[in-house]
Amino acid sequence: MHEMTRQEFPSPFPSPSPSPPPASPLPTRRVGQTALDVSVLGFGAAPLGGIYRSISNAEAEATVATALASGLRYFDVAPFYGLGLAEHRLGSALRERRDECVVSTKVGRLLRPLKAGARHATMYVDPLPFEVAFDYSYDGVMRSIEDSQQRTGFATFDMVFLHDVNRRWLGDDVERRFDEAMNGGYRALDELRRAGQVKAIGVGVNDSEMLVRFARAGRFDGFMLAGRYTLLEQTPLDALFPLCEQEGVSIIAAAPFNSGILATGARAGAKYFYTDAPADIVARTRRIEAVCETHGVPLIAAALQFALRHPVVASVATGFSSPAEVATGAAMMAVAIPPAFWDELKASGLIRSDAPT
């Protein structure tokens, strides 16, 4: 994937003058059947790794500081984000307040030094000089966690996800990697959970059907599902969410803006799953915006709060790349949304009638 400039991929957040952030932590919800509670708004650390634009260490630190001041207490990161850069930055910014927060990371990719003369093929701008080697084996997962501990400076993580075991990243190798993950990586995570070294384990993908397979194959506490339970898509209502309710598995609903359009609105260049939004998505978003205008509901507030209306969802996690974005996101969580708004979305066929609102 080619690298994009800030102008080609603008921030999904507008730049209003947000209300002052709350002085106390946001409400929390329990993850599965564990004793782990996460804030209902989670901090996705991918932008700290320079997704689509480079950010400075100072900006990254200020963004995390604003998240803490705004009441966020759940932070998610991964080795893939900036090829280690996001973990370094989150660790530096959060280290003195680590005990106040829940932190998750991901496994399945090991980082190896970039060979001399090689070039990155990544969406990250100015990443660290490493390349990815997929590894979902027992030893690979154990090494990944140790590497992440060193990069962040954290002795432990609260939650660990098997990352991106899906066809988008693995292609025809996905079946072999699924078996590798369940026979190796899952066993490693389960051992760590039994020993009390992690509080919760799960899987993080953007594929609800793959999560159904994992739910049936092992005992997980939470799944991170990116971009699949939003105002624009509710397919997890068919199989995944009922199964999660039955098995006591929580959902972290990541990417609630579908990578942009549900925050920016249907403007020129709006993004949907990191590419230009197709015409049908643009048209659907315009119709949702019209309902928002009728009821005086900001689109961002509706996008952030929608998933949380489902009882299986513990947190909505989105990426933040500036203090202003964090403050706006936190303020939108406090916006009161009238029931009539959700009713009209359902009556217009813009969201499913069986979506809890």
Automatic annotation (TrEMBL):
<dbReference type="InterPro" id="IPR036812">
    <property type="entry name" value="NAD(P)_OxRdtase_dom_sf"/>
</dbReference>
<dbReference type="GO" id="GO:0016491">
    <property type="term" value="F:oxidoreductase activity"/>
</dbReference>
<feature type="region of interest" description="Disordered">
    <location>
        <begin position="1"/>
        <end position="29"/>
    </location>
</feature>
<protein>
    <submittedName>
        <fullName>D-threo-aldose 1-dehydrogenase</fullName>
    </submittedName>
</protein>
<dbReference type="GO" id="GO:0005829">
    <property type="term" value="C:cytosol"/>
</dbReference>
<dbReference type="Pfam" id="PF00248">
    <property type="entry name" value="Aldo_ket_red"/>
</dbReference>
<feature type="domain" description="NADP-dependent oxidoreductase">
    <location>
        <begin position="41"/>
        <end position="347"/>
    </location>
</feature>
<dbReference type="InterPro" id="IPR023210">
    <property type="entry name" value="NADP_OxRdtase_dom"/>
</dbReference>
<dbReference type="InterPro" id="IPR020471">
    <property type="entry name" value="AKR"/>
</dbReference>
<feature type="compositionally biased region" description="Pro residues">
    <location>
        <begin position="11"/>
        <end position="25"/>
    </location>
</feature>
